[in-house]
Write a structure and sequence with these properties.
- The complex is a heterodimer of chains A (157) and B (80).
- Chain A has five helices and five strands; from the N terminus they run βαβααβαβαβ.
- With 157 residues, chain A is an alpha/beta fold.
- Chain A folds into two domains: 106 residues, DsrEFH-like (Hypothetical Protein Ychn, Chain: A, 3-Layer(aba) Sandwich); 40 residues, no CATH class.
- Chain A has a five-stranded parallel β-sheet, with helices on both faces.
- Chain B has 80 residues and is of the alpha+beta class.
- A four-stranded mixed β-sheet of chain B has the order 1-2-4-3, with helices on one face.
- The chains are: A alpha/beta (157), B alpha+beta (80).
């Protein structure tokens, strides 16, 4: 009995630390469940696989009412607030022993997650293939759709 | 007394959180022979639900679960 493996197709469109986690966690967990997984990195999501940036993704306090410190949201616009929010988040994550983004990317690559960088947004944002981590293929909407059309789960992050 | 389960391999996932326990479990189980038993030890409170879902989807058998303090132990038999 050879059943076709289940598949998850994800789009990562955000380049903040909090939005980098869901696609990577779901993709690596899917591989662990003997599923196939693919992530299409587009627009700011390209930062997640940009080797100059992926270790320094930030948490935006502005426009984020879920910030734990009760303060008027507009204060998030002050200089230094993004760095502070990012530092806090990184400190909680490291206390909870959550895997870092580079580590999750390693797990994704080792597990065979198909990772596609969006050619069009790379051109728009001046990102070169050399800026991206190893193991990324470059493609466009049709490349993603060709993978996603056979997916059981498809999510936009 | 319940029969003892012969354990072939122990995987220490203490301190790790989602998704690492199931990622490591799935890698470890692939190194065993069919019928062998892996024990995964975890301190992640989410591991119970995740291990049930993992076993259901991968087809491996969750033989037994134990809790000692905050350490959860999952006995998994490789089925394929």
């Amino acid at each position: 009995m050879t059943e076709k493996p289940k598949r998850i197709a994800l789009i990562a469109s955000k380049g903040t630390l909090d939005m980098a986690y869901p696609p990577l966690i779901l993709a690596t967990a899917a591989i662990a469940m003997d599923m196939e997984a693919g992530i299409f990195f587009t627009f700011y999501g390209l930062d997640i696989i940009n080797k100059h940036k992926y270790n320094s993704l930030k948490v935006p306090p502005l426009g984020n009412p879920a910030m734990p410190v009760p303060m008027p949201n507009i204060l998030g616009a002050l200089p230094g607030m993004t760095a502070m929010a990012t530092m806090m988040m990184k400190s909680w994550m490291s206390k909870a022993n959550v895997a870092s983004i580079p580590k999750l990317l390693d797990m994704a690559r080792e597990g065979g997650v198909r990772m596609i960088g969006c050619q069009m947004t790379m051109d728009v944002m001046g990102v070169k293939k050399e800026d991206l981590i190893d193991g990324i293929e470059i493609g466009g909407a049709a490349t993603f759709l060709d993978f996603a059309v056979d997916a059981n789960i498809s999510l936009f992050v | 007394m319940a029969e003892d389960i012969k354990v072939d391999s122990i995987l220490d996932c203490k301190g790790l959180v989602c998704p690492e326990p199931i990622v490591k479990t799935n890698i470890a189980i692939k190194k065993l022979q069919v019928g062998q038993v892996l024990v995964m030890e975890s301190t992640d409170a989410g591991a119970t639900s995740d291990m049930h879902s993992w076993a259901k989807r991968t087809g491996h058998q969750l033989l037994k679960e134990e809790a000692a303090g905050n350490v959860l132990k999952f006995y998994v038999k490789k089925m394929k």
